[in-house]
Amino acid sequence: MKILFVCLGNICRSPLAEGIAKFYAAKFNIIFQTDSAGISGWHNGEPPCKGSIQVAKKHCIDITGFRSRKVSVYSDDMFDLLIGLDRGNVSALLEMGFDKSKVHKLGKFGLNNADIPDPYHYKDTDGFEYVYDMIDNGVKNLLNHYFKSNIN
Length: 152
Prior knowledge:
This protein is α/β, with parallel strands linked by helices.
């Protein structure tokens, strides 16, 4: 299985989701491929933002080597799941022409279908921690759902 996490710029939320998913894959020996991308190309080639790097590091996850890229219906159609971090991301993926059966919102997985807010809306590191916790719970539930794992 191949999973792509998608947010707007691919520097905050989706790199965290990718890093968290890779962390659990290694920890629980779950075999899948994952990547992340952004709806916009504003940050192409840039590393994740400082707040995302710091909160990931706090949880023993290294995302410093990740680089932002723009999602493309041509190169990313090979993914089995495209996981938008909010409803705008999901709408944009569908407008781009991705198969509706592949596109889901992370909030669908144990988060009462909530949007994952952009941590830039918060003024301190608590916002990044809040967003991290939401993404962590969503990723755990997604992996438990698709891989019948028991990640708590």
